[in-house]
Amino acid sequence: MNYDVAIGMLGCGTVGSGVARLLQEKQNLYAQRVQAVPGLARVLVRDLARERPGIPAELLTLDPADVLEDPEIQIVIEVMGGIEPAREYILQALRAGKHVVTANKALIARHGLELFEAAAESGVALHFEAAVAGGIPIIQTLKRSLVANQVDAIYGIINGTTNYILSAMTEAGSDFQAVLREAQAQGFAESDPTDDIEGFDAAYKLAILAGLIFDQRIDMQQIHRVGIQRISAEDIAYARRFGYVIKLLAIARRTEHGMEARVNPTMIPQDHPLASVNGVYNALLVNGDAVGELMFYGRGAGQMPTASSIVGDVLNLVAELDAPPNVLMSSPLPATAAVLSPAERVMNRYYIRLQTHDKPGVLGQIGALLGQEEISIHTLVQTKNNPGEAELVLISHPVSELRLRQAVAQIRQLESVREIDSIIRVEDFRFH
Amino acid sequence: MNYDVAIGMLGCGTVGSGVARLLQEKQNLYAQRVQAVPGLARVLVRDLARERPGIPAELLTLDPADVLEDPEIQIVIEVMGGIEPAREYILQALRAGKHVVTANKALIARHGLELFEAAAESGVALHFEAAVAGGIPIIQTLKRSLVANQVDAIYGIINGTTNYILSAMTEAGSDFQAVLREAQAQGFAESDPTDDIEGFDAAYKLAILAGLIFDQRIDMQQIHRVGIQRISAEDIAYARRFGYVIKLLAIARRTEHGMEARVNPTMIPQDHPLASVNGVYNALLVNGDAVGELMFYGRGAGQMPTASSIVGDVLNLVAELDAPPNVLMSSPLPATAAVLSPAERVMNRYYIRLQTHDKPGVLGQIGALLGQEEISIHTLVQTKNNPGEAELVLISHPVSELRLRQAVAQIRQLESVREIDSIIRVEDFRFH
C-alpha cells in the first residue's frame, strides 16, 4: 500500500478492522478530500496467526515499539481498549510527537488530564470523537460548531445496551432479567454487563461531555450514578400510564445550584424527542444559550459507525498536519477537578412506588410525612394487589433530593408501609 | 472595544444585531476559547440614525469601502442578504485577502463557483454554516466530521415557514390559505411568501447540501421543485388515515439511476423521526455509508440560532488565522455542473386523489390504465362526496415518475374522471 501519511494502529479487533477497511477501500476518496494519501503502516496485534482480511500480514507486529518508535508514523490510532497498556502506549506516542486518535472513553475520562498535558507539551493532538456516542459527531460539534455558545445542558441516551434493554422491556412488558439474558444471547449485552447496566459506561462518556461544556475537569467519582438493574416491568407500565417512558439519561447542566452531572433512569414525557430513541440508537439533546435546543441522533456503537468517527478524526488531522495544533480541538484541562452541585440540592420531580398494608389512615400518614418536607403530590394512584395489601404510586412536584430522602426515610419507618419498591426521577427538560 | 482580530460586518438587521450581541457579550469567553480577542471594527448600515443597542455609533458606516478596504479587518461577515451588492462586496473582500462568513444561501447556491474560486485564489476561507438550517451545524458536520463517509442520502426539513404551515394544517385541519394568512399575521411567513411556499428557499439550501455530498456543483435549475401551495386539508386527512404526515422534504441521494436532488411535499410514515419535526424546527436525516443513519434537529432560523452559526464560523477562523486554509473547509467546485438523474426515472410510491362520476366500471377503467404502465396499487379508498360523484384515493407501489405521468395523462382523458386533485410522493426511506 502506498501512502503519504503513515498511520500506526494499536489493536485490531472489530473496530480496528473497520478502520482498516475504510482506510483501504476509500483511499482514493480520502486522498481527494484531504489532498494526501493516508495509509496504515503498522498494526499492533496480539495474535499474528489470526487472519485479517484486507490487512497485509507484513503490517502486523507483536512489538508496540514498531508502532510507537517508528519515526515515519505520524498518527497513532488506539483501539485496544482498557486502561493499561493503552495509557502507557498513548503517552509514548504523544511524547514521540505523534498525533493520537482514540475511542477509549474510560481512558479519556480517567486519565484525560495526563494525556492532554502530554499532547500539549509535544504540540500534537489527541482526538477522541469515537469515545462518546460512537458515530454521532458530538465532540467536534461541541468544540467547534457550537463554540459561540455557552452550553447550558446536555441530556444524553449514550449507552446502547441499557437503551436496548429498556426499549425491549417497554415493548414486551418483560422483566429486566429476562430481557438482559436475551440481550446477552443476541450480543447486545456483555456476559459481564456491569459496566453498562450500572451506568459506568454512560458516566465515562458524561464525564467527557461535562468537561467540555463546563470547561472544567470532571472527576468520575463526582458523577451521581444509578443503573437500570432495579427498573421493573411494573415501573415501566406505570410510566406509560402516566404518559412517560423510562430511559437511562446522562445529564450535565448548569443550574442555579451549580453544575450538575449524573446518570440515572429517568421518566421522560412520551412525546419528547428523546422518548422515541429506541434500541441501540443514541441521542444527545444539547441546549446552547444562543442556538437553543439541538438534537443529534444516530448509532452509538458498532464497527462501522465507530470507525467513521475514528477515521474522521484521522482525516481531520491529515488535513492540518502542517498547521499548528488547533486551539479549539486541544483540551487544556484545569488540574483541579470541577466542584459539582451535590446531588442532595438537585431539584426533581420523583416517581415513588411502595407497598402498604391496606389499613385506614395509611395515605394520611404518608401524606403528612411528605407535607413535613414540603413535598406536594402531582399524581397519585392506589391499587390493591393482594387482600390486605395496597400498592401506592405517586409522582411529586419538584423537590430537592435531600428533602425527598428525608421523607422516604420516615415513610420507611411507618408500620403500615411494607416496602418502597422504586424511586425514579422524572424529567421536565426545563433548561433555565 | 479592544480586540486582536478586527471583524467587519456588512448589514446589521436582525441577524447582524444578534452577531454583534454575541461578539460583545461573550468577548471574554471567546477570548479564552480561541486565545485571541475578536471584535467588531466596522459595520456597514443603510441608516446611521437608527439606534442599535450595544453597537457604538462610531463603528457604523454608509461606505462599503470602510469595511472592504480597511487592511486591519481580517474577517468580513455578510448579513445583508440578496444577490447584489452582496456578491460584489464578498468578491472584493475575498480579493483583498479577507476571510468571509456569510448566511446568504441564495448567493452561495447561485454564485458559489465564482466566490469559492476567488477565495481559493486569495488563499482565504469562505464559510457559510448559517446558510443551511440556521443553528444546526450541518455544513461543518458534512465537511469535517463525516469526511470518512460517502454520504448516500440527505432528507431535510429545511424551510421553517412551510413546516410551520404544514404542522398547523395537520393540527387544526385547516386549509392552506387560512393557515398562510395566520402565519403571515404572526410573522412566520413573509408578506410575499413565494420563496418559501414554492420551495425556492429549500432548493437553495438543497443545492448547497447536494453539492457537498456529491462533491459536484449543482445547478439550481436541475433541482426538481414542487411547493406546498396545492396541499389541501383533505390530503392531510387522508395522509393521517393511511399512517402518514405530509412534509416539504428536500432530498439529495444517490440512486441506481444516478444522483437525485428534489424538493417536494412528501408523505412520510407517522412513526418516522422526521414526522415529529414540527413548527419552525428543521431536521436533517443523513445516511453515510460507514456511520449509517444520523439525524440533526434544531432551530432552522431566528436571530440567535443563526448568529450562533455565524459567530461559530468566525471563531473557527480566528482559531486558525495563522494556519493555511484547511482543505476540508474549502470547497473547490468543478466548473461544470453535476448531471442529476432526470425526475422521470426516479422511483417512488405515489398518493393520488381524484374525483369521478359514480358510475359502474370507473374503478375498472382506472385500474386497467394503471396496469398498462405496470403500476400496482398498495391502498385504495373510495368515498362518495355528493350524489353521483365519488372520490378515489390510492397509494401505489414504487413506480417511475415517467410511467406515473403517462398513466395519469390517460386517466385524465377518461370521461368518468372529473378531476385529479393531488399527486403526492410517498417516501419509504430506503437508502440503497
What does this structure look like?
The structure is a homodimer of 432-residue chains. Chain A has 432 residues and is α/β, with parallel strands linked by helices. Chain A folds into three domains: 5-134 and 303-319, Rossmann fold (3-Layer(aba) Sandwich); 139-299, Dihydrodipicolinate Reductase, domain 2; 345-426, ACT domain (Alpha-Beta Plaits), CATH 3.30.70.260. Helices cover 35% and strands 26% of the residues of chain A. In chain A, strands 7, 8, 9, 10, 11, 12, 13, 14, 15, 16 and 17 form an eleven-stranded mixed sheet that branches. In chain A, β4 (73-78), α4 and β5 (99-102) form a beta-alpha-beta unit. In chain A, α4 packs parallel to α5 (105-122) and α7 (160-172) packs across α8. The radius of gyration of chain A is 24 Å and the shape is elongated. The N and C termini of chain A lie far apart (54 Å). At the A-B interface, α2, α6, β12 and α12 of A face α2, α6, β12 and α12 of B. β12 (292-299) of chain A pairs antiparallel with β12 (292-299) of chain B, so a sheet runs across the interface.
Structure in a nutshell:
Chain A contains 14 helices and 17 strands. With 432 residues, the first copy, chain A, is α/β, with parallel strands linked by helices. In chain A, a hairpin with a 2-residue loop joins strand 9 and strand 10.
Please outline the helices and strands.
Two copies of one chain form a homodimer.
Chain A: E1 5-10, H1 14-25, H2 27-34, E2 38-44, E3 60-61, H3 65-68, E4 73-78, H4 86-95, E5 99-102, H5 105-122, E6 126-127, H6 138-145, E7 151-157, H7 160-172, H8 176-185, H9 194-197, H10 200-214, E8 224-225, H11 233-241, E9 244-255, E10 258-269, E11 281-288, E12 292-299, H12 303-319, E13 347-357, H13 362-372, E14 377-383, E15 389-396, E16 399-400, H14 401-413, E17 417-426
Parallel strand pairs in A: 1-2, 1-4, 2-3, 4-5, 5-6, 8-10, 10-17
Antiparallel strand pairs in A: 7-9, 7-11, 9-10, 11-12, 13-15, 13-16, 13-17, 14-15
Helix pairs in contact in A: 1-12, 4-5, 5-10, 7-8, 13-14
